[in-house]
C-alpha cells in the first residue's frame, strides 16, 4: 500500500503503528552498522516508501532508508510517555565492572580539569552563566540504578547520581516548549534530545557513579544519563548545552543512526 502525503494520524491504525514501533526499537539493538541499522527499519513497514525507486540505485535506496529512519523518529516521539519509568534495580544487580563504551579506546579517554571546568549554557534560556561543578553539586541530588542498553546488543546495570535534568532546566529558565536540547562534549562527541525526554524524571545530569565522583572513563565531569534512550544518546564529558528549535543532529545520528534512539 502506498502512503500518501494527504494522510493524517487519523488514517493510521494506531495499535498497528504502536506494535511496529516497539518491535523496531527492540530489533535495532542487535545491529550497529549504519546500513543494516536502517535496513531493519525498512523490513518493519517502510517498504512502501520505496515505491517508484529502483533497488539497484544506491542513492535512491539510501535516501529512502533515511526517510524511513526519520519516520521512525516521529513514531517513537508519539508513543514516548514522559511519565513511564524505566525499570530500576538493586545494588546487588549492578554490573561490576561497568563496561567502558565510546567511539575510541579506553586509553584515549579525555581528561577534563575540574578546577577550570565550566558548563556553558546557551540558547533559549534565561540564565546563561557558566556553571562550576561546585554549583552543580550544591543542587538537590538523586540516585538511580538503571540499565544502559547499547545499540551493539549488550547491556549493563549501573548506579548513577546527580541533578534531575528537568530541575536544572527549570532553574536556568529554559524554554521547555522548545523542541531540542543539544550537547557538546570534551571528546568531540555531540548529540541532541527531544524536550520530552529532557524533562523525564529519570533523566539526570550525572555527577557520580556508584556513590563516587564520576570517573573519567564514565564521563567526568558530567554525563547525561537517560535510561529511556540507547547508549549512544547519553553524552559524556559534557562541556556545553543549548536549548533550541533548530534540529541539532548528533555524531552518530548524522551518519544515519536513528535520532530519537529510545522508547
Automatic annotation (TrEMBL):
Q: What Pfam families does UniProt report for this protein, alphabetically? A: Oxidored_molyb (PF00174)
Q: Which residues form the Oxidoreductase molybdopterin-binding domain?
A: 109-252
Q: PANTHER family recorded for this chain?
A: BLL0505 PROTEIN (PTHR43032:SF2), PROTEIN-METHIONINE-SULFOXIDE REDUCTASE (PTHR43032)
The organism of origin for this protein: Acidovorax bellezanensis
Q: What is this protein called?
A: Molybdopterin-binding protein
Amino acid at each position: 500500500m502506498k502512503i500518501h502525503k494527504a494522510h493524517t494520524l487519523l488514517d493510521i491504525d494506531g495499535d498497528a503503528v504502536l506494535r511496529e514501533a516497539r518491535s523496531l526499537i527492540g530489533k535495532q539493538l542487535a545491529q550497529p552498522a549504519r546500513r543494516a541499522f536502517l535496513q531493519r527499519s525498512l523490513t518493519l513497514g517502510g517498504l512502501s516508501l520505496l515505491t517508484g525507486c529502483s533497488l539497484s540505485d544506491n542513492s535512491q535506496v539510501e535516501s529512502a532508508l533515511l526517510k524511513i529512519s526519520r519516520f521512525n523518529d516521529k513514531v517513537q516521539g508519539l508513543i514516548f510517555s514522559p511519565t513511564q519509568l524505566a525499570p530500576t534495580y538493586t545494588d546487588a544487580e549492578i554490573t561490576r565492572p561497568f563496561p567502558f563504551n565510546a567511539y575510541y579506546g579506553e586509553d584515549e579517554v579525555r581528561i577534563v580539569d575540574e578546577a577550570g571546568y565550566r558548563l556553558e549554557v546557551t540558547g533559549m534560556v534565561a540564565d546563561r552563566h557558566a556553571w562550576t561543578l561546585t554549583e552543580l553539586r550544591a543542587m538537590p541530588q538523586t540516585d538511580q540504578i538503571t540499565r544502559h542498553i547499547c545499540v551493539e546488543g549488550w547491556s549493563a546495570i549501573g548506579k548513577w547520581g546527580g541533578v534531575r535534568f528537568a530541575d536544572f532546566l527549570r532553574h536556568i529558565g529554559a524554554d521547555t516548549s522548545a523542541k531540542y536540547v543539544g550537547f557538546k562534549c570534551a571528546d568531540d562527541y555531540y548529540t541532541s534530545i527531544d524536550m520530552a525526554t529532557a524533562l523525564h524524571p529519570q533523566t539526570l545530569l550525572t555527577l557520580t557513579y556508584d556513590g563516587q565522583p564520576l570517573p573519567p572513563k564514565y564521563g567526568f565531569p558530567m554525563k547525561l544519563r537517560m535510561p529511556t534512550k540507547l547508549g549512544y544518546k547519553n553524552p559524556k564529558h559534557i562541556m556545553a548545552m543549548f536549548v533550541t528549535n533548530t534540529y541539532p543532529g548528533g555524531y552518530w545520528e548524522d551518519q544515519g543512526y536513528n535520532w530519537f534512539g529510545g522508547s
